[in-house]
Structures are given as C-alpha cells and as structure tokens.
Amino acid sequence: MHGNKKERAPKQAPQPAETVKQQENAAVPESKPQDVSAPKTLPEREEAPSVNDGTEDNGAAGAAESAKDTAAEGAAVKSVASKADTAAEGEKHEENEKPEKSEQEGKAENAEKAQESGTGGSPSPAAESRAPSKPSEPSEPSEPPSKLSEPSNLLEPSAREKLRAAVGRLGWKKWAAIAAVFAVLLGAGLFLAFGTTHVIERSDRDAKENIYMVVKPGTTASEISDHLTRLGVIDSRLRFWWLMKLQGDAQKFKTGTYAFAPHMDEQAVLDKLVSGDTTVVRFTIPEGFGIKEIAKRLADEGLVDEQEFLAEAKDFAPYDYMKKRPNERYAAEGYLFPDTYEIHSEVTPEAIMKMMAEDFDTRLTPELRQQAAAKNLSIHDLVTLASLVEKEARYDEDRPIIAQVFFKRLQMGMPLQSDTTLQYLMAGPKEDVSIEDTKIDSPYNTYQHAGLPPGPIASPGMKSILAVLNPASTDYLYFVADRQGHNHYSQTYDEHLAIVEQVR
C-alpha cells in the first residue's frame, strides 16, 4: 500500500491546481463579471457533467482521477476565457487610442461602406468578420457595427436636407434674385393706371426717323410702357415694366419731349426717361385755332414750313373717324387738340400732327364716346358741332346754351345760320358778316345749307365738347353776341331782331 501512496501523491493536485489558477489569474487581467459566463457560448462544454455521471460507481481512484480532469479542464476553460477577454480589451484599447473622427467624416465613411456593401444600413463584410472576436452576450450588439446599423436617412439625406444645403451654399439673396428673374420670364405682370401721356405715332415703325413722345406731369409707368410698345420704340412692354419695378425708376421720370429710335433696348429707353435727356421747343395752340392758324404759329416758331404743313393736313387721318369727307377742306381740321406741347426742334409736320391727334384721341375717353353714341352723334359730328360752339362762345356759361340752340334747329330742320362758318370761308376773320357774305356758295355756308357743315371749322377744347354732350334745357332758337362777347337769346325771330338793335 505504501507504493500506492507514492502513486497517488501527484493526485493531490487540486491544491497545486489552485495555486496555478492564482498565478494565471495574476498574470492575466481580471475579466469583467459578464465575461465569466463566456463558456455558455460554447455548448460542447456543457456535456462534461454527463460524462462524469457515468463513472460514479468506480472507486476512489476513479473519482480522484475525474476530479483532477475536471479541475484541469476548468482551468483550461478559464484560461481561454481570460485570453479572449484580454484580446477584446486589447481591441477596445486600440480603438480608444484612435483619434475621434468628425461627424462629417464619419457620415462620409459610413456612406462609402454602405455603397460597398450594397445596403444603406447593413455592416460591411470587414465589420462582420470582426464581430465574433468580441465575446459578449447575444442580447447586446457589439460596438463597432453600431454606427453602420444606423437608419439609412443618415447616409442618404432627404430631399429637404439637400434643398437646405443648396440654399445654404447659394444664399437667400441669390435665390431671391433667381426667383425675380424667373417671375420675369413667366410674365407675371400687371400694369398700373395713371395719368395722360401724349405720344407721336409713326405708321412706319422700321423707319430711321425718330419717334417723339411728350411726358407731362402725372404721366406714369403703365402709360409709358403701353405707348412705347405700341409705337414700336420697345419690343417688350413686360420687360420694360419689370425693369422699372426692379430698379425703382417708375417714379423718377422727367417731364419733357423725348426722341426715340425704333426698336430701342428697353434699358436704354429707361435710362433716357430717368436722366431727362430731352431737346425740345415749347409751343401752345389755343382753343378755336383752325388749321391755317396752327400752321402759321408753328412756322413762326421755326418748326415747320407753313405750306408744307397745310399740304400734309389735307389728307392726314391716322384714325378712322378722321377720314376725309366729301367737300371737306382738311382731314386734320378739328382733331389737332389745343394744348401746350414740347417738341424736338427737328420734327416733321407729320410728327407734330400725330402728337396733337394722339392728344385728342386720349382725351376722348370711352365714356365720352358712349355719350356721343347715345345722342346719335358720330365722333366726326361731335367735333364738328363742338367747333361751332367753340367759335361762337367767348364765355363758358354760354357754351351749353349755344349747343342747345343748334340741337333744336337741327331737330326742326332749320339752317344753323352760324356766322363762324362764313368766316371760315373767308381769307381772314371778319368782325361783322354782311348780307352778301351769306350768299357765298359753299357747303360750309350754314345760311344756305341746313345741317352741319362738311367738317369741323376749328379745334374745340374740352369745354365745348362737353357742352355738346350736355346741352342746356331751353327753348331758344336765336342768339346774338354784344361787343363784349356776351350772348343774348330769344325764342322768336321778332324778339331776336329787337335784341340785335339793342346790342349793336
């Protein structure tokens, strides 16, 4: 039995094994508590107890031998777990020593890894190969793939984020400018209604001669843009209007007469209007002036040749209502509106007449045209009758009454018997008309011919035009003016003769 003791002496290894365990534990850093359960990840080790259970009926020698094997196996398992923990700690230590990357670099790296792997949120193969090297419980994901498994919207920015990034790069002011240009291209434009502009139109828009326009106080953006486009000075009313709005020049126009070339650049036209680049001569045509008087006034100003102007006036008719009637002397008579004008010193007779006719057409508003139509008056008849009132009345209060006298005579078929029509036929004005004068053979002689003369005999002002549209309500059929120009009215011819004896 003594020999057996010598053989069993080494089997008292459990105590030295504990010492070995302490030495190994001292050499290897102590693992975390959760890592002690690492053998649970190794299912093959759980079969060891079943093997020991099969040897219980052996003797003391078998139990001792089994205990030794179990102790050695446990030590080996703990050694493996400790080494695994050491490796994991080493990897963590290396990762902690790496410099932290910026958030933008991290997102860029994640995007590259996502493109390599083919999916927005799954980890790359390199990350998958490293994951098993870190023993951890299955319920807790390992740290390295945590960033790779973030939602895909971090790797692929949404449309809103892309828009914000684009806006941030360009800046809001640049975006506002782009939006303004886009609005111009789309054509969102409304035109403001302002005062009156007097414009000279040209029938030949491709001509090399200048086009003239008068800008008076109260003239504004919409009127100017409208006329410039219609006359062929500019090609785009919308572009001109938006240039004014964007540059804030709509209220900076200088009054005066401007000379423009056909089809000018809109910016050049705008600069001209803002700078007040005008070279003009001012002239005034009073109410009641006829074509001959207008021609003489312009010739005296050195603007036209008198005979050339009269020759041009014979057939001048830019509007349909101005077309020359049979027996009418001048188509332009009555339609060159009396006003004060500014004109370029090198203007032609046609240009002056166009400017004055445009003035008349602008003042004859749609409302006034409707009133004339309600009285069965054409524009030609309206101007013709207004020209008679203009020449007969010296004072404003007489205009509506004289208009009513003419209306009643026309309704009754009586001749108008206006001395002013006779004076129109004479070479010059005559203070008193004689009986012989009333016998002149002419369609303009309202003593010999009933109804209106062939056309206007002068340029009426607005007051005379309004008097014809709104005549007084009287029963007068006769009137005569005294030496001071005041008119006296009567209903019968006898009353009229008595008044004539009194005032003359």
From TrEMBL:
GO annotation, cellular component aspect: plasma membrane
UniProt entry tagged with the keyword Transmembrane: yes
Q: Where, by residue number, does the polypeptide cross the bilayer?
A: 175-195
Which residues, if any, are the signal sequence?
none
Q: What is its main location?
A: membrane
Q: Which CDD domains does the entry link to?
A: MltG_like (cd08010)
> What Pfam families does its record include?
YceG (PF02618)
- UniProt site (Important for catalytic activity): 392
What topology in the membrane does the UniProt record assign?
Single-pass membrane protein
Q: Does the keyword Membrane apply?
A: yes
GO MF entry, a single one: lytic endotransglycosylase activity
**According to its UniProt record, which protein family does this protein belong to?**
Belongs to the transglycosylase MltG family.
> What functional role does this protein have?
Functions as a peptidoglycan terminase that cleaves nascent peptidoglycan strands endolytically to terminate their elongation.
Protein name according to UniProt: Endolytic murein transglycosylase
Question: Where does this protein come from, organism-wise?
Answer: Mitsuokella jalaludinii
